[in-house]
Amino acid sequence: MPEIDAATQTELEAAAFRRLVQHLRERSDVQNIDMMNLAGFCRNCLSRWYREEAATKGVTITDPEAREIVYGMPYKEWQALHQKEATAEQKAKFAAASTGH
């Protein structure tokens, strides 16, 4: 792996984060429960991590604000537009994983 200075590494990580967020916004067909069942995290986890990291820098961001950063719109609006009722199979898989989400 090439030697990368800290500033460049941070820039690359930030760019990758922005691409991930954009990808998740474009893939509104992918439900959070499916992400949790397959990967162990979802859009809400990502927004919580963002909020928690902001707090370590002394920046206060509310949960709704952090979610809007990830969803690209208010969470309630995204839910109304894109969230479907979880199936019994999805709920059972989620409960079996017991991720504490």
List keywords for this structure.
101 residues, 6 helices, 69% helix, globular
Report the strand count: 0
Please provide the ordered H/E string of secondary-structure elements: HHHHHH
Round the mean pLDDT to the nearest integer and report it.
95
Q: Gap between N and C termini, in Å?
A: 35 Å
Structural class: mainly alpha
The biggest beta sheet, please?
A: none
Which word captures the global form? globular
- Computed CA radius of gyration, to the nearest angstrom: 16 Å
* Fraction in helix: 55-70%
Taking pLDDT < 50 over at least 5 consecutive residues as the criterion, the unreliable ranges are: none
Structure description:
- The chain contains six helices and no strands.
- With 101 residues, it is mainly α.
Give a brief outline of the structure.
By secondary structure, the protein is mainly alpha-helical. The chain has helices at residues 6-26, 32-39, 43-56, 63-71, 75-82, 88-97.
SSE blueprint and pairings:
Elements: H1 6-26, H2 32-39, H3 43-56, H4 63-71, H5 75-82, H6 88-97
